[in-house]
Amino acid sequence: MSKVINFNRDTLRRLRNDGLPVGKKQVEYRDSKEAGLCMIQYPTGKQMFYFMMSCRKQRFKERLGDSDTFTVQEARVWANELRAAIFKGDNPIATRKKSELLFSGLFALYYAEKKDKKVSSNADESKYRLHLAPVFATKQIGSITSAHIEKYHALKKEELTPATANRHLALLKAVFTYAVNKLEVLTKSPASGIKSFAELQKKRKYFDLDELNRFFAELDNEANIEAANIIRFMVLCGTRSSATRDLRLENYDAKLSTILISVDKNGTGQYVSLSDKAKAILEHQIAKYGTQGRVFRGVDMQSRMSDPSRIMTRVCKNAGLPSAGVHLLRHSYSFLALERGVSIYQLMTALNHKTLSSTMVYSSISNNKLRQINNDLASQLSF
């Protein structure tokens, strides 16, 4: 049975000096002025403040700290705030305990849910293991502040690049948003409101029509017919290398002139419209392999084809062109499409971009088309 007394400095000092009754391991006291505020005294003389109350058939208990650290007034304010929150229907004690989850545990929960849904999950795991974990793994998520994340963001900008630092910030935002919206272990993300660094836009490289024709003239001499065909297909359709190497013959519809990319980089499927030349490549592959399995295959005629970057390098060199990677083929497709009057929105659909901003980077490389439009307009003016 708790004893009810008026907590004050003199009373607590007297209780400590008197010690515990014989045979008692601890004695519990309740404050007469603040409902829910308790103090438990131990044989060592330590006096620990607690909050204890029952409300709506639920019992709440929380430890504040000892009387050497907190004054009676501080303990009363703390107890009053807890009681007010509980009467409102909140559970501040449970919320605090949830926020004691370590960042390592939070990321483990996030990764377990996202690894099969998010294409970049492997890259996320690598960022966590190599960079985030050494800084945040052992911290309680409730103790991580915006200042901590801003400091980390700035550090990665210096160690790596602004763009890479921004990718780290994006991952932190995703993890803490998951903690707020899905797990409900935080009420606000400490990463919200932190702005990304400005990124230097990389110069986009592409082949114009004359360069592409030189490239294809040399590609006709390539001994690796499979690699030559996949390179031609990527230019004709603007598809990514990885997605093209995953194409399957059973997803080709000759009547509709389409082929399905099951899952692209952004995690969505896409029907690709096929020109006659692209269809001719697929018909060649069907004659070679039948109507099932991969469209483009490795040397064993079964496995996934390796990236044709080496072929690209060799053909570019022989054609007297600058060395280029396979993604340049997608850039070239985009450039040529814009040159021929395709709208940025149509190109967005063709490239299977989720956001217009991803497609807008190609608008800056079509200056020839803009110059032509300006010249046409100028020729019609009378001055």
Q: What this model shows, in words?
A:
With 383 residues, the chain is an alpha+beta fold. It folds into three domains: 3-92, Double Stranded RNA Binding Domain, CATH 3.30.160.390; 103-183, DNA polymerase, domain 1, CATH 1.10.150; 209-374, Orthogonal Bundle (hpI Integrase, Chain A). The chain is 50% helix and 11% strand. Strands 1-2-3-4-5 form a five-stranded mixed beta sheet. Strands 6-7-8 form a three-stranded antiparallel beta sheet, with no helix packed on it. α4 (103-114) packs antiparallel against α5 (121-136).
Give a quick account of the main beta sheet: strands, pairing sense, barrel closure.
5 strands, mixed
Report the principal-axis shape. Answer: elongated
* Helix and strand run: EHEEEEHHHHHHHHHEEEHHHHHH
Distance between the termini: 101 Å
The number of distinct helices, counting runs of at least 4 residues, comes to 16
CATH superfamily of the largest domain, called what?
Intergrase catalytic core
**Unreliable stretches, pLDDT < 50, 5 or more residues?**
none
Class derived from helix and strand content: alpha+beta
- Can you identify the CATH class of the largest domain? Mainly Alpha
Give the count of structural domains. 3
Write the layout of secondary structure elements.
Elements lengths: L2 E3 L3 H10 L8 E5 L5 E5 L5 E9 L2 E9 L5 H16 L4 H8 L3 H12 L6 H16 L9 H14 L2 H22 L25 H11 L5 H13 L3 H5 L6 E2 L4 E4 L8 E4 L2 H14 L19 H10 L8 H13 L4 H8 L4 H5 L6 H13 L4
Parallel strand pairs: 1-2
Antiparallel strand pairs: 2-3, 3-4, 4-5, 6-7, 7-8
Helix pairs in contact: 4-5, 6-7, 9-13
